[in-house]
Automatic annotation (TrEMBL):
Its cofactor is Zn(2+). It is an enzyme of class 4 (lyase). GO terms for molecular function: carbonate dehydratase activity; zinc ion binding. Its EC number is 4.2.1.1. It comes from Pisum sativum (Garden pea). PANTHER family: CARBONIC ANHYDRASE (PTHR18952). Reversible hydration of carbon dioxide. It catalyses: hydrogencarbonate + H(+) = CO2 + H2O. Keywords: Lyase, Metal-binding, Signal, Zinc. This is Carbonic anhydrase. Belongs to the alpha-carbonic anhydrase family. Residues 31-268 form the Alpha-carbonic anhydrase domain. One of its GO terms (biological process) is one-carbon metabolic process.
Amino acid sequence: MHGQNHFPISILLISITILLYSTSTSALDELEYSYNEESADGPKHWGDLKREWAACKGDMQSPIDLSNERVTLIPNLGKLTSFYKPQNATVLNRGHDVVVTWKGDAGSININGNEYFLQQSHWHWPSEHTINGKRYELELHMVHVSPQKDGTNKTAVVGILYKYGLPDPFLSELEKYIVEVPDEDEETSIGVIDPSKIFKDSNMYYRYMGSLTTPPCTEGIIWTINTKIRTVSKGQVMLLKNSVLKYYAKKNARPVQILNQREIGFYDSIMAQNVPHYY
């Protein structure tokens, strides 16, 4: 299935440019909001700061608490598999986080028959999503886009949660660049980065429809949260924090949002095999 029905590279690059404009605005723009819950520009007020950010007051916002009481086993979701490949990348301090952006076709994941091409990865501390109320030390978001025939894009984000423990290999590879990254809106080349070293596939995950977790809080985002909790060292989390300490002293995690009537799907390959009449 992979390798067929690809969009021309020109269309892919256009889609990446559009998403960069909508989700990776400059550090200066990002400073127009904060994570201070007591501030007038804090998370509760994001939807009022700009007309373009009105979606932040919507009913399908992220992050959420992935509570067992609200989870439904959906066997036909299937294993999530990536088809990533090494590609040149850059690192950028956006003021509120550090983002790694791939500068070409770094591969994709397939969801419901649609290919979503990897664009960038960034971190939030502490984690934005919680599991049964538990918040972890770090969360990585891998942002993907799927160009549509009508010229729009669909977005899918894979979230990976971390607890304190052994260093994360991906961050270990990037540490020297993060230390040296300018505290301004300037990309730094970090050479070829293989995203398959971050994520390959998942046999157990949560799936729900939500939004971007930063303004403009665009809804209609397909979220996949891997259930496997990885480890990261305290020093690596501090490195990320210190890189944006000039802007946000403690955290860059949006508070958990109301689930409303949304369904949280859950896939477990072992459980799926034991479901009667599974197709």
